[in-house]
Model the fold of this input.
Amino acid sequence: MMLKADGFEAATVGKVYDLATSSERLVYSFEQCVDILVKRDGMTSDEAIEYMEFNVTGAYVGDGTPLFMYELID
Done:
């Protein structure tokens, strides 16, 4: 069962199949999630990053826990 990160639907970039748990997982763009928090909630960029790291990416809620992708910068 794929779990969703509520409020971050616009940051969804795809899904993966996790062989370790035999489950599908949604993948979100970390940067787009930060942008959502800045625009929607009026956070600074630093506040949004801290919020994401502590409350979102650091939360494991079972096999279907979403993944958050960091874009590679050349």
